[in-house]
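re: the backbone from monday

yeah here it is again, tokenized this time
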């Protein structure tokens, strides 16, 4: 039986290290900080079957008016299992404040 799931979002977890002794982590099993995890929801979910893949890039830029705000461009494609042809490349923009 093939497993089928809907791919709806990308979650971003990260660690930040300042100097060599101060760090912050956003992973769920560590103590919460003022920095947050981020999830980018897709406009349209992608139906994935076992063996399919998602590939892409995340472009991130600071906003000129406030360096703590980000403009993010998600570029992704869905490739079916066994196919040597990448699916249509899709783009989605996000603004994080």
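seq for it, each position gets an aa:
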């Amino acid at each position: 039986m093939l497993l089928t799931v809907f791919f709806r979002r990308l979650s971003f977890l990260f660690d930040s290290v300042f100097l060599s002794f101060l760090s912050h982590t956003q992973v769920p099993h560590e103590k919460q900080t003022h920095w947050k995890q981020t999830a980018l929801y897709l406009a349209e979910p992608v139906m994935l079957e076992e063996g399919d893949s998602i590939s892409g890039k995340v472009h991130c830029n600071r906003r000129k008016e406030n360096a703590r705000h980000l403009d993010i461009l998600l570029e992704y494609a869905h490739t079916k299992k066994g196919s040597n042809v990448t699916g249509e490349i899709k783009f989605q923009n996000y603004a994080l404040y």
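Strands lie at 4-12, 15-18, 22-25, 38-49, 53-62, 70-79, 90-96. The mean pLDDT is 86.
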